[in-house]
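Memo to structure team: turn this sequence into structure tokens by end of day. - J.P.
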Amino acid sequence: MQAALEPKVDLLFRVVGQTLPVDHGFTLFGAISCLLPEFHDDHLAGLGLIRGHYLGDGLLGISPHASLTLRVPISRIPIYLCLAGKTLDVAGHALRVGVPQTRALIPISTLYAHVVSTKNGQDQDRFEAEVNRQLTGLNVKGKIAVGKRRTFAVHSRQVVGYSLLVSALTSEESILLQEEGIGGRRRMGCGFFEAKRT
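Reply from structure team:
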């Protein structure tokens, strides 16, 4: 079976640390890639941003139950297990990585992505058109609601994206959207769809 046709699962690594930058997608991608070069070129992998509480000055306080989530094809799980026990340097913030739990993707009729990034995404109308084009390409017919405009750093450049809610999904569409995502930079936390957190 080709990897692209394999089911994907979430690897949830419990993480221990004090703080992270709010904008940590690119730096977290870099930190993981330094320890695990395979991640840098794994276009089938996705990364979920780490959640925390805002402390001010662009920093998040990491909660005791925070986790690093990697969404990967089942056959690639062994590649990523070696992250357990390592310490990531995320823009000068130490993040110790625990042993992961594996979680199957489950169908949810409404999915949320904290940020989705597309070409020419700084223009909301063009962003919506591109999102609809990509959803059509996946044969996903859900309803979209574009949320907050967000900017994040990639190298020294500011990139624009938007939060995105996709609703009225069938079970098949929901799993497909979680597995494939939309937009670019999915190893930097973009286009990562999950249940909306309250």
